[in-house]
């Protein structure tokens, strides 16, 4: 199309035609490079997004595991407190009672 336009317009310098052609060609090349770069960036973003999603899922699972461990730990601590109180009560009731005398002064 550029050549046909130049033939109809004899005032156009042939060097300008070459420049217009190369500018169009380089514009196309730049667009191709940018398209490829954009495709690569989109692919990288998708890959990183997937990795982040997997890491988040792993962290959620780990968090749930830690919450269960915390709940179990609190339960065991409460049971330990209860057992300590029961042991203390048992000790006071059965182990700390005064020694009975048998009447002859011997223990």
Quick overview:
With 107 residues, the chain is mainly α. It has helices at 2-8, 14-95.
Question: Could you characterize the architecture of this molecule?
Answer:
- With 107 residues, the chain is mostly helical.
- The protein has one domain (2-93).
- The chain is built from two helices and no strands.
- It has helices spanning 2-8, 14-95.
- The radius of gyration is 44 Å and the shape is rod-shaped.
- 0% of the residues are buried.
- The mean pLDDT is 86.
Secondary structure class reads mainly alpha
Task: Characterize the largest beta sheet: strand count, sense, and whether it forms a barrel.
Answer: none
Query: What gross morphology would you assign?
Result: rod-shaped
How do the helices and strands follow one another from N- to C-terminus? HH
Which parts are unreliable, with pLDDT below 50 for 5 consecutive residues or more? none
Structurally, the number of domains stands at: 1
Number of helices: 2
Secondary structure: helix percent: over 70%
The chain-level mean pLDDT equals 86
> Radius of gyration from the CA trace?
44 Å
Distance between the termini: 127 Å
Strand segment tally: 0
Strand residue content: under 5%
């Amino acid at each position: 199309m550029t050549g046909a336009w130049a033939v109809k317009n004899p005032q156009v310098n042939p060097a300008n035609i070459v420049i217009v052609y190369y500018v169009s060609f380089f514009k196309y090349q730049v667009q191709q490079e940018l398209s490829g770069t954009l495709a690569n960036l989109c692919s990288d973003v998708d890959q990183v997004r997937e990795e982040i999603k997997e890491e988040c899922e792993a962290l959620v699972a780990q968090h749930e595991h830690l919450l269960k461990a915390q709940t179990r730990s609190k339960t065991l601590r409460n049971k330990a407190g209860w057992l300590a109180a029961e042991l203390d009560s048992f000790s006071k009731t059965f182990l700390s009672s005064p020694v009975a005398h048998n009447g002859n002064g011997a223990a």
